Amino acid sequence: MNFCKNCGAQNDPGVKFCQKCGSPMVPTAPVAPAAPVSGYATTPYTPAPTELPGKGLGIAGMVLGIIAVVLFCLWYISIPCGIAGIILSCVASGKAKEVGMSNGMAKAGVVCSAIALGIAVTYIFLGVVVGISLL
Ligand SMILES: [Zn+2]
To answer: What is the 21 CA–ligand 1 centroid distance (Å)?
Structure first.
């Protein structure tokens, strides 16, 4: 629709002057986007590093931790996997911290490995010390 800016009358599209009051019709220009706030406009966008340092180690640590949890009853597999999982995850977490990043998989690896070691040690404790055979 083509409304007069002066009197608000509705005019036919394309008329140069208002058909009611005669004031010049301003073509409806698209609304210009608001000017960006200077603070935001001048702030350079700093992309995060694409590759997380120690990512592979974090994955390895998490996988070892999961294996250790799953195979808790095979303590001779679970305990070495859990220890290796904690070491790899800690190394991976440290590498990520060096660049101010967080390696979630490494943290999961530490938690999984620690849980696995706890379960395996408890399992051995029950089997050997208490004498309950779980095998
Ligand atoms: Zn008018």
So the answer is: 4
32 alpha carbon – ligand 1 mean position (Å): 24
Note the pLDDT tens digit of each residue in 42-82. Answer: 556 666 556 788 888 989 989 998 998 898 878 888 889 99
Q: What is the pTM of this model?
A: 0.55
**CA-to-CA distance for 130 and 90, rounded, in angstroms?**
33
How many angstroms separate the CA atoms of 130 and 115, rounded?
21
Return the HEC string of the chain. Answer: CEECCCCCCEECCCCCECCCCCCECCCCCCCCCCCCCHHHHHCCCCCCCCCCCCHHHHHHHHHHHHHHHHCCCCHHHHHHHHHHHHHHHHHHHHHHHHCCCCCHHHHHHHHHHHHHHHHHHHHHHHHHHHCCCCC
Among candidate residues 53, 62, 70, 69, the one with its CA nearest the CA of residue 86: 62
